[in-house]
Amino acid sequence: MMKTIEPSYAGPGEPNRSPALSTSALGMLIFIATELMFFASLISAFLIINASAEVWPPEGQPRLPALATALNSLVLFASGFSIFKAYRVFAQDGHSESARKLVRLALWLGSIFVAVQGFEWIRLLGYGLTLTSSQYGAFFYLIIGAHGIHAVGALLGLWRLYLKLRAGDLEQQGFQAVLFFWFFVVGIWPILYVLVYLS
């Protein structure tokens, strides 16, 4: 059986050093870059339609719950802060109980955010805002729905991270990749909120 040799990033006579970013973290950053372009295209289309509309939002369409969503946004930001603190604790103390508690808190807060968003959608559908009711409704569900899908994917990543942390089997590079993805979900939300809910 052949032994796997780890790549060395040191020259002759230099101490062995690891790369600044793991391959999984770098892969996640590349993925996030493509997703940023995807959201940029959605936002561009939304701004063009918004600017060309005589009345926005259209008459007869329900208004979005801006205040309730602003409060729900605070829950998402708290989740992002919790996972950031969890990563710092993990980097210092490894698989500690405090790291597990912070990851669990981030997971619960993120789940609350997604659940509240889902409840809002059900209410808006009941009020007549659908994908086919207007361009307003179509763009709302397209843009906010795309974010919701990313949030659910990131929550699954957080859940897997928590299970590996609890089992004592989590590596820092895996934590880093999930951290970057959750930061993307949290970081893009204020832009989407301002554009969609406050326009």
Descriptive account of the structure:
This protein is mainly α and 199 residues long. The chain has a domain at 70-197: Cytochrome c oxidase, subunit III, four-helix bundle (Four Helix Bundle (Hemerythrin (Met), subunit A)), CATH 1.20.120. The protein is built from five helices and no strands. Helix 1 packs antiparallel against helix 4, helix 2 (66-93) packs antiparallel against helix 3 and helix 2 runs antiparallel to helix 5. The radius of gyration is 21 Å and the shape is elongated. The termini are far apart. The model is unreliable at 1-6 (pLDDT under 50).
Looking at this protein, list some descriptive labels.
disordered N terminus; mainly alpha; 0% strand; single chain; 199 residues; Four Helix Bundle (Hemerythrin (Met), subunit A)
Secondary-structure blueprint of this entry?
Elements: H1 23-52, H2 66-93, H3 97-126, H4 135-166, H5 172-197
Task: Write down the Rg.
Answer: 21 Å
How much of the sequence is in beta strands? under 5%
The main pleated sheet reads as:
none
Helix vs. strand class: mainly alpha
Q: Categorize the overall geometry.
A: elongated
Helix content: over 70%
The fold-level CATH name of the domain at 70-197 is Four Helix Bundle (Hemerythrin (Met), subunit A)
CATH architecture of the domain at 70-197: Up-down Bundle
CATH superfamily of the domain at 70-197: Cytochrome c oxidase, subunit III, four-helix bundle
Q: CATH class of the domain at 70-197, please?
A: Mainly Alpha
Sketch the topology as an H/E string, one letter per element: HHHHH
**What's the mean pLDDT score?**
89
Helix count from the secondary structure assignment: 5
Distance between the termini: 63 Å
Number of strands: 0
- Low-pLDDT sequence parts: 1-6
